[in-house]
């Protein structure tokens, strides 16, 4: 829409907007939340607890740093991707006096980190010595290279993990080669398109990252999607490592924690049901061998659920975080979420059912911190987003024990394993930029 004849410097443009019928009509169509006394009561639940704690915690976190590349083309950029898997022996915490902040050296001595890294090209960046190459082709090949990495030389690659959990699936997408009329056909590794041009396709093209690649702007968002899938595949890769009969007993006394929600969004979200199925399979195997399901959860530090938790944990007399007692557990079902957190008709399809492999739990820890925990869906009961019974959350009490024991005062609503994982995965801005400059031989 083009507006002419408005003198913005005199304020006439603002007057025109204030009197605009379109603006008033738009305001009239916005549904507002009902904050009357009849609103939903937060679904507080009682969770059976004991003194169980794991021997070790495996925490996974990743980060990306996007930096401009000066190669003569406008908007040229690339991102460093760093993934960290931290193994923490929490028996070392037994010597720490309760309610005291331990020395950072204690944490440094009790964890062991494995990292996986790579560089993701963005707009106007191509490979050296590849005439006719395109930035999106370089990006596609780099994704293939990163997911061909392994966290342990004796174990399968992340790409092999993806292949194993999606075996038999054929991607129903357009060929990623520009102007190719063929349908994309899934293959292994790198191979040639069936069309007359015979250009290279990659197994990871099935994840559809290339569909979001922006040749005229920033690619920070799609690079973030690559990071997230790398985190999730690393988690499944590790679980598959431990399911070996010689190692499966470790699952009994191990907690696995992923930074952020247990979910996959965007173009690669189609893998979420396969991830969920694999978690359920390994959990069932653990239940058979160890007598217990997997203990796996994600921690969200921001977002709509955390905002909602802050809103409801409030009293006019005492202010924020004053309504609920410490160790309060709230499990919102699908109807409550639709009415109070993610606006949609209450009988609509449950929020997150296509993208999440975990269920939301709001928890106020023993030290009064807020946590939005994603409890992994490990059985068929958990797949019903209306079901908030204990059977849908078989290891929730153990997860809450871990949160209480390892919550840290160093950061608001912090959780020590993820603090350590982030410390290994975080890329200092100056250092990261220097790495990128050196990769592109920049001064």
Describe the structure.
With 443 residues, the chain is of the alpha+beta class. The protein has one domain. 30% of the residues lie in helices and 18% in strands. The chain contains twelve helices and 15 strands. It has a nine-stranded mixed sheet, sandwiched between helices. A hairpin with a 7-residue loop joins strand 5 (190-192) and strand 6 (200-202). Helix 5 crosses helix 6 (220-242) and helix 6 (220-242) packs parallel to helix 7. The radius of gyration is 24 Å and the shape is globular. The model is unreliable at 1-8 (pLDDT under 50).
Indicate the radius of gyration in whole angstroms: 24 Å
Number of strands: 15
The N- and C-terminal alpha carbons lie at a distance of: 45 Å
Show unreliable segments.
1-8
Number of domains: 1
Inertia-based shape? globular
- What portion of residues belong to β-strands? 15-25%
Mean pLDDT: 85
Spatial order of strands in the largest sheet: 1-11-12-13-8-7-2-3-4
Largest sheet properties: 9 strands, mixed
Class inferred from helices and paired strands = alpha+beta
SSE ordering:
HHEEEHEHHEEHEHEHEEEHEEHEEHH
Q: Tally the helices.
A: 12
| Helix proportion range | 25-40%
């Amino acid at each position: 829409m083009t507006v002419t004849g408005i003198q913005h410097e005199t304020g006439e443009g603002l007057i025109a907007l204030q009197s605009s019928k379109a603006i008033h009509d738009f305001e009239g169509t916005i549904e507002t939340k009902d904050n009357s006394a009849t609103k939903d009561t937060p679904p507080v639940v009682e969770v059976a607890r004991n003194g169980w704690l794991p021997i070790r915690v495996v925490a996974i976190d990743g980060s990306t740093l996007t930096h401009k590349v000066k190669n003569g083309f406008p908007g040229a950029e690339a991102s460093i991707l760093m993934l960290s898997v931290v193994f923490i022996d929490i028996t070392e915490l037994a010597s720490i006096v309760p309610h005291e902040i331990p020395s950072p050296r204690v944490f440094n001595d009790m964890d062991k980190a494995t990292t996986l890294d790579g560089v993701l090209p963005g707009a106007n960046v191509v490979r050296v010595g590849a005439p006719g190459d395109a930035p999106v082709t370089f990006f596609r090949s780099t994704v293939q290279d990163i997911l061909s990495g392994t966290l342990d030389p004796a174990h399968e690659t992340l790409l092999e993990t993806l292949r194993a959990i999606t075996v038999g699936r054929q991607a129903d997408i357009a060929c990623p080669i520009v102007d190719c009329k063929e349908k994309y056909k899934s293959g292994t590794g790198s191979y040639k398109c069936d069309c007359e041009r015979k250009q290279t396709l990659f197994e990871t093209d099935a994840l559809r990252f290339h569909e979001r690649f922006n040749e005229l702007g920033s690619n920070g968002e799609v690079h973030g999607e690559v990071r997230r899938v790398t985190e999730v595949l690393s988690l499944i890769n590790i679980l598959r490592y431990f399911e070996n009969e010689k190692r499966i007993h470790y699952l009994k006394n191990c907690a696995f924690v992923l930074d952020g929600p247990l979910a996959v969004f965007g173009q690669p979200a189609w893998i979420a049901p396969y991830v969920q199925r694999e978690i359920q399979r390994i959990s069932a195997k653990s239940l058979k061998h160890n007598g217990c399901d997997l203990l796996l959860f994600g921690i969200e530090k921001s977002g709509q659920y955390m905002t909602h938790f802050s809103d409801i944990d409030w009293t006019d007399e005492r202010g924020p975080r004053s309504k609920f007692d410490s160790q309060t557990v709230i499990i919102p079902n699908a109807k409550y979420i639709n009415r109070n957190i993610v606006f949609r008709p209450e009988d609509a399809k449950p929020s997150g059912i296509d993208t999440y492999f975990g269920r939301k739990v709001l928890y106020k820890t023993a030290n009064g911190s807020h946590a939005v925990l994603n409890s992994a869906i490990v059985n068929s009961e958990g797949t019903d987003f209306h079901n908030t019974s204990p059977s849908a959350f078989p290891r929730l009490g153990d997860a809450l024990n871990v949160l209480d024991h390892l919550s840290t005062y160093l950061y608001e609503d912090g959780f020590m394993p993820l603090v350590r994982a982030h410390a290994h995965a975080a890329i200092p801005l100056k250092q990261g930029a220097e790495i990128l400059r050196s990769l592109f031989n920049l001064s």
